[in-house]
Amino acid sequence: MRRAATVAGLAMLVSVPLWLKSPYFLHVLIITGIFTTAAMSLNLLLGYTGQLSLGHVAFFGIGAYTSALMSLGFDLELTDTWKLVVEPKSTGVAFAAAVMVSALFGWLIGRLSFKVRGAYFVIVSVSFAEVVRLVALNWVDLTEGPMALNNIPPLSVWLPEIGNYRVLGKVPNYYLMLAVGAVSYVVIARLVHSRAGRAMTALRENEALATSVGVDVTRYLVLATIVSAATAGAAGAVYAHYVRIVDPDIFLFIYTVTMVIMVVTGGKGTLAGPIVGGVIFGIVPEILRDLAGPEVQWIIYGILMILIVYFLPQGIVPAVRNGLQRRREATDAGMEGITSTAAARDGGT
Amino acid sequence: MRVVNFTHGELYAFGAYMMYLWVMRLHANFFVALLLAVALGVALGALIEFVLLRRLRTADIDTTMLVMIGAWIAMQNAEQLIWSGVALSINTPFPARPLQIGAVSIGWERLFVFVVAVGLIALTYYVINRTRLGKAMRATFQDRDTAMLMGIDVKRINTATFALGSGLAAAAGALLGPVFVVQPGMGDLASLKAFAIVILGGLGNIFGATIGGFVLAFIEELGAGYISSGFRDGMGFLVIILILIFRPTGLFAQKERIG
Amino acid sequence: MSTPAPASGVELAVNALSIRFGGLVAVEHMTFEVRHAEVLSLIGPNGAGKTSAFNAITGYLRASSGTITYRGQRLDGLRPNEIAALGVVRTFQKTSVFGGQSVLDNVLIGLHLRSRQTPAAIMLGLPYVKREERELRDAAHELLRFVGLDARAREQGAALPYGEQRLLEVAVALAASPKLLLLDEPVSGMNPVEKADFMKTLARIRKRNITVLLVEHDMRTVMGVSDRVVVLNQGRIIAHGPPDEIQRDPDVIRAYLGERYARAHG
C-alpha cells in the first residue's frame, strides 16, 4: 500500500514539467525542492538526534560557495609572496568538493556538539553561522563579499548517448533537484531505518541508557552532523548552479528559520515531515504573494508555528498518522462490536 | 528560566521604537519617554510570558524555543509593517558638542547611556541579591520543585523574571536607540551578543554577565583593530565558540552537573 | 573484542575502590570480587554507596582511587559504551526505557553491539544490511519472549505498566550480550507476584552462564537468588559470604536489619 503511494507520488512529481507550463511556478518548485532537501538534512539533526542546531544554513551556504568557487576558479594572496591559484574545475568536481567541504565542517560541529549541549549548543550553532556569514561578507579577496559570485556555470552532467549535458534552464534543473532530493531522501531513510538511526534516536531519548548498551555517543552525533551537513551542502551546490549567483545573504539566519519551520510543522523525527513542511512553506508563500505583503506573511508563519507547537506538538505528519490510527482502531472496535452483537443475536436465545 | 528567548531582541527594538514614538511623534520629554519605554517593556514581557510561556511549563526546551522563534518572527515583521524598514533617528536633549576631559572626548549621550547602564546593572544586582523577590527568583532557578514546596508562587516568579529581563532589554533599546538608529532588525544583533555575553559569563550569574559584557566589547574592539572592522561583530562569536569548546559552562558558572 | 572466561574464575575484581564527592565519601576502600557464573548481591542501607559503586564500575562516575578490573582488563577510565562492549552491562535504579519507542525498538537498540552494520554500508544499501535487520528482529522477539513481553512488542515503551517496564529494561540489557550483568534494584516497586516471576527470570539468566551482580533492598529476593552477599554500610564493606552466614552475622543484623531484629533473633 505504501509502496504504491510512493510510486504514484514520484510519478506525479516527475510528470510535473509536462503539464506545468508556467516557468515562474516551476522556479518556485525548484527552490522549494532545494530547501526541502536542506530541511530533510536538518531533520536528521533536529528530529532524530535531537541536536538543537540553528546554524544549518551555514552548511547550505558553504556548499554553495565551495561549488561556485571551484567552478569559477579563484586566487588568494596568502602572504606577500605566496599566491594560491585554483583553476576553474569541472562542475562535477566542484559539486563533489562542495559536499566534502560541507561534510568537513559538519564533522567539526559534530565534534563540538559532543562537548556543548542543549541551549549552549543552540548559541554556538547560531554563532557559527553568523561567523561564516561575516567571513563571506568580509573576505572579499576570496568571496567577492557583497558583490557576489556571479556567472557561475551550470552543472554539467554526463548522460549516456548525449555526453556532457549542461543543466541549464528550468526544466533540467527541476529534474536535477528531484534527483538530488531523491538520493538524499533514500540515504537518510536508509540511515534512519538501520542500526545507526536507532542509535541516534536512542541518544536523543535516553543517553545514559544508550551508552549502557554500547552506543558510542560521539560517533553517532558526528555521523549525523556529517551526513546532515553534506546533504545541505549538496542542496546548496544545486542552488548555486541554478541561480548562478551567490552572495553572503545566503547565510542569513532567516533561512535557517525557514528550514526549522519546515521540519517542525511537518513533523520532526519523521521522514515525510520535512517534505510536508517544505511543500507548505515553499508553496504557500507564493499563493499568498498576491494577497498579502511579505511582512504579513511572516507574521502569519510566526503565529502558525506557535499554534502548531501548541496544538500539534509533534507536527502535521504524526498528527495525521495518529488520527488515521485511531480511526482504524475505532473501525476495528466497531467491527468487533457488530460481529459480537451479531454473534450474540444468532447464538443467544 | 531555561528559555532560549528569541524575543529578547524584539523587546530591545520595542524599547527603541517606543522612544521614537514618544519623543518624535508625541513630543514627550526625553527622560519621561525613557521611563515609559521601560515600563511598557516590562508590561510586554509579562504579557508574552503569560500568553505564550505559561502553557509550556512541562514542555522540553526545543518546544519553548520554537514558540519563541515564532513570536520573534511575528514581532519583527509587525514592527516592519507598522514602522516600515526605514532607519529612524531620535533627537536627544544633550548638547551636540562632546565633553572634553583632557585628551579624551566623550559624547554626552554615550556618557548618559553608560551612567544609566551602570545604574541599571547595580539595580538589577540589588534586586536579585538583596530583595525577597530576587531570593525567590534564585531559589526557583536552582530548584523549582523545592521552591514550590517553600510556598513560592513559581508562576508569578516566572512572569516577574521574564518581565524584568524584558524591561532591561527595552531599557537597553531605549538608551541606544538615540545613539544609533532605529530599525526593525536592530534587535537581532543585540540579541545574539546578549546570548554570547550570557554564555561567557555563565548562565544565572549577574556578575559574570557584566564582566562578560566588558570582555566582549573589549575583544570586539581589538578584533576590529587587528583584523578588519567588518569583522568586529564576528570577533565575539569566535571567542564564544572557542571558550565553549574548552569550558562548556562559561567562564564563571558554577560546576553544573551534566547528565 | 572481549576476553575469554577467566581460568581463575574471577570475573570482576574491585580493588580498594574509593569514591569521593568533594568532602563527602560515598565509598571507602572497597575490595571484592565477582566469580564466574555466580550471583553476587550488594546490599546495605540507603546511602551505603551501592549505586555509586555501580556507576564507577560501569563508567558513569570517576573513582577517586582504586582499580576495577574485568577479566584482566582495567575498566576505570573507560567510557560506558566501551565497558558495555567488553560484556559488562547494567540496568538503572530509576526506570530507564526508551519511552517514545516501541517495545520491539527498545530491544533493537539494545542489540546495537550485536550488529555489524557500518554507516557506509547502510547508506549504500548493501544487501547484508537488510538481511541483518531481519536477523536482529528475530533476535529481538526471542528476547521479548524470554522476559515474557512478546505480546507487547508494538506498544510504546512509556505506555507499559511499571512492572513490565522493568522487564523491558532487563530485555534491553540482555540484548547487549552481557557476560556480566549488573542489576540496580531490579525488583523495587514490584508486587510479590512480579518479584517471584523475576526470580524465575533471573534463574533462566543464570542458565545462560551470565554472571550477575545485584544491588537490592528486598531481602527475600536477595537471600533467595544469591550465591554470595556483600554488605555495605556507610561506604565500607562490613561483611561478605553466603546468604545464610550473612543473615546470622551480628554486625550485619545490627547495621542493616536493625536493633530490634538483632534482639529478636540474637
SSE topology:
The complex is a heterotrimer of chains A (349), B (259) and C (266).
Chain A (H helix, E strand, L loop, with lengths): L1 H18 L3 H27 L7 H16 L1 E4 L5 E4 L4 H25 L2 H21 L1 H4 L5 E2 L5 E4 L3 E4 L3 H23 L2 H11 L1 H6 L4 H27 L1 E2 L6 H14 L6 H16 L5 H18 L4 H32 L2
Antiparallel strand pairs in A: 1-2, 3-6, 4-5
Chain B lengths: L7 H18 L4 H24 L7 H23 L15 E3 L2 E3 L1 H23 L1 H11 L1 H6 L4 H23 L9 H16 L4 H21 L5 H15 L13
Antiparallel strand pairs in B: 1-2
Chain C lengths: L9 E12 L2 E12 L3 E5 L6 H8 L7 E6 L2 E2 L5 H6 L2 E3 L12 H8 L8 H6 L2 H21 L14 H14 L4 E5 L7 H16 L3 E5 L3 H7 L2 E6 L2 E6 L1 H6 L1 H8 L1 H7 L1
Parallel strand pairs in C: 3-8, 3-9, 6-7, 7-8
Antiparallel strand pairs in C: 1-2, 1-4, 4-5, 9-10
Helix pairs in contact in C: 3-5, 3-6, 5-6, 10-11
Tally the structural domains of chain A: 2
Widest β-sheet, arrangement of strands of chain C? 6-7-8-3-9-10
What number is the mean pLDDT of chain A? 84
Structural class estimated from helices and strands of chain A: mainly alpha
Cα-atom radius of gyration of chain A = 23 Å
Taken from the alpha-carbon principal axes, the silhouette of chain A is globular
Number of strands of chain C: 10
Lateral strand order in the biggest sheet of chain A: 1-2
Tally the helices of chain C: what do you get? 11
What level of helicity do the residues of chain C show? Answer: 40-55%
Question: Any overview of this molecule?
Answer:
The complex is a heterotrimer of chains A (349), B (259) and C (266). Chain A folds into 2 domains: 23-314, ABC transporter involved in vitamin B12 uptake, BtuC; 317-349. Chain A has 14 helices and 6 strands. Chain A has helices at residues 2-19, 23-49, 57-72, 91-115, 118-138, 140-143, 170-192, 195-205, 207-212, 217-243, 253-266, 273-288, 294-311, 316-347, and strands spanning 74-77, 83-86, 149-150, 156-159, 163-166, 245-246. In chain A, helix 2 (23-49) crosses helix 11, helix 3 (57-72) runs antiparallel to helix 4 and helix 3 packs across helix 10 (217-243). Chain A is globular, with a radius of gyration of 23 Å. The two termini of chain A are 43 Å apart. The model of chain A has no long low-confidence stretch (mean pLDDT 84). In chain B, a hairpin with a 2-residue loop joins strand 1 (99-101) and strand 2. In chain B, helix 1 crosses helix 7, helix 2 packs antiparallel against helix 7 (154-176) and helix 4 crosses helix 5 (132-142). Chain C starts with 9 loop residues before the first strand and ends with a helix. The mean pLDDT of chain C is 86. Chain C has helices spanning 50-57, 80-85, 103-110, 119-124, 127-147, 162-175, 192-207, 219-225, 243-248, 250-257, 259-265; strands spanning 10-21, 24-35, 39-43, 65-70, 73-74, 88-90, 180-184, 211-215, 228-233, 236-241. Classes of the chains: A mainly alpha (349), B mainly alpha (259), C alpha/beta (266). The A-B interface holds A 46, 50, 52, 112, 115-120, 122-124, 126-128, 130-131, 134-135, 137-138, 207-208, 253, 257, 260-261, 264, 293-296, 298-299, 301-306, 309-310, 313 and B 2, 4, 52, 55, 59, 61-63, 65-67, 69-78, 80-81, 188, 192, 195-196, 199, 203, 228, 230-231, 233-234, 237-238, 240-241, 244-245, 248-249, 258-259.
